[in-house]
Amino acid sequence: MDPQLSPHVADSVATVVIRHPAKRNAMTAAMWRALPPLLDTLAADPDVRALVLTGEGGTFCAGADISTLQGSPEEAQHLAVAAEEALAAFPKPTVAAVRGHCVGGGTQLAAACDLRLAEEGALFGVTPARLGIVYPASSTRRLVSLVGPATAKYLLFTAELIDAGRALRTGLVDEVLPEGELDKRTAELTRVLVSRSQLTQAAAKEFAAGRTDRDAHWAARARGSGDTAEGVAAFLERRQPRFTWTTSGSG
């Protein structure tokens, strides 16, 4: 099988599978390039309310395909950062479902997701120090925001792998699941996500990312969305709300 990103949509959830089994799902240059336009397509799809990123088989992603670094390391890093930023900017909730190795570019992608679930036995690492590469400033800041400066320095300075338990304690992942339970829990979580207000989620995502210039924008969206009225009515009527505001086509 050629290395590829395989998307499919079911029950309002887009799942993107990283497939490169010959190299433990390492990302090739073509795969890095393919991710931003794929995300644009999924973001514009009104049937998509959440996204899951995962790897084929027992590995999430072993990083960048090292053979792609032989020509132009700078270009390879640029492609990885562009893909990471596109994933971080995806306007709907994103979940990384991690099995096995999540290393280098794999951790870069997982960190760009909003939430991270890991199966017991997963291993995480940020490994540019093994190759003499300067980790991108934006990626470093994102890592620090997740795990704090001390753990970020440990990961970057040592390039050592940490297990899922330590990843949970440091904030790199949100939940650790027993073997065989990751898919079930991912499905449960995404069912919750797609049932909630996209308006609330989209605004919270921007605010959590540090935007300070969009208060009036989101207040206006809230006034015109109908989601608040529906949420209050559903609560009083003891029923599930039917939120209708979507990020697709909104500013």
Automatic annotation (TrEMBL):
This is Enoyl-CoA hydratase/isomerase family protein. Transmembrane segments: none annotated. PANTHER family: ENOYL-COA HYDRATASE (PTHR42964), POLYKETIDE BIOSYNTHESIS ENOYL-COA HYDRATASE PKSH-RELATED (PTHR42964:SF1). Belongs to the enoyl-CoA hydratase/isomerase family. SUPFAM superfamilies: ClpP/crotonase. The lineage of its organism: Bacteria, Bacillati, Actinomycetota, Actinomycetes, Kitasatosporales. It holds the Pfam family ECH_1.
